[in-house]
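I wish you would study the pair of lines that follows with an eye to the fold:

===
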Amino acid sequence: MKTAAGYAAGLLFGLGLAVSGMTDPARVLGFLDVAGAWDPTLMFVLGGAVMTTFIGYRLVFRRSAPVLGGVFQLPTKRELDAKLLGGAALFGIGWGLSGYCPGPAIASIGGLSLPLSAMLFTMVIGWFAAKRLAQ
């Protein structure tokens, strides 16, 4: 049941990205181009995500345990450190250069292009580098 719920959540997320146009890197880059032809569409998508998350967390935390799990797994670390800030900076730089973040990139695999391939390749290298640095 957990696997089916995971697939359903991934499908819903991917459909949301496709319907909102966030799988189009030009739209994302247009949002980041505040000094040029700025496209505010992403702001509305992000606002919708924040509202959904805000309401969802309120509903979920009324429960004593997850529906498909034993306990809620929440992060315990609360402070900012160099790894977090460095990772966030690398994520932002990659997103700004390619127009893709991991979710839309994976949702766009069906239309694989050279820029998307480069982004996915560097994302996988980043995973391995982060794993080695964490040891």
